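Entry 14. Ran structure prediction on the chain below.
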Amino acid sequence: MLSIFRQYTYDDSYVEVFVSGKVLRQYQIALTFATDYDQNDSPTNGLFRPTWDLTKVTLESITAFKQAHQDVDVKVFLSIGNRGPIYPFKPVDTKTWASNATESLTRIIREFKIDGIDVLYEQIDASPGDFISCVGQLLRNLKERGVVTLTSISPSSILDKEYYSVLYKEVSVHVDWVDYQFQNEVAKVANPTMLLQRYTELLSIYPKKKLFAGYSAENEDWSTLSPIVFFLAGIDILQKKKAPGISIHYHNYYTQPSPNEE
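Output, structure tokens:
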């Protein structure tokens, strides 16, 4: 039985996924993304807004999905960050970013009755110290004030050592899950054994009880990690390493409307 499955999505495609308490303990929907950039692509220093499809993902649609799947613990996450180089983490004023982010994200979280927040920046245009200070304070604020009950961070290979692993050490008590994005490995993951070995190495940094194996089903990511390699390795990661769950990016983000087109 797969314990937890997370789907990253910007629309309501989760309604098409087979969700059953016979195979899942928890199903997580991670909405991509909330961004602190305006319609002119300028950073707004923590003033976040949702960029997912607001015509399809509504409070009503989320509520209806949860009611239709009461045999599974459905949790909805708001994911802040980016895929690729656009909309990187780039605070204008590090002294006010966390307070701005806390206030703006609290409004979105309460509007959609979201359960958790996920931090998934693939590009960071700031020092490790500024990222850790700003994002760490945001996670503390949202958790300690009861705005969310769950938090996760989603590291990538290049950013893990200086940014995410240090962030985790600073605020580990406030981080429930670590969703490592294997599709962003620097070198090609050629076979399942390599992926299993990489997961094992990560256990020296993150506790096994929190560490997801993350994957992207985007065609653009297959050159680094093919579907067959991930799913074969995923079986071993779940069975041999007793990982709590896996995550998948399903949709083609390259066809997703940019925030300034909405």
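DSSP finds six helices and nine strands in the chain. Will compare against last week's run tomorrow.
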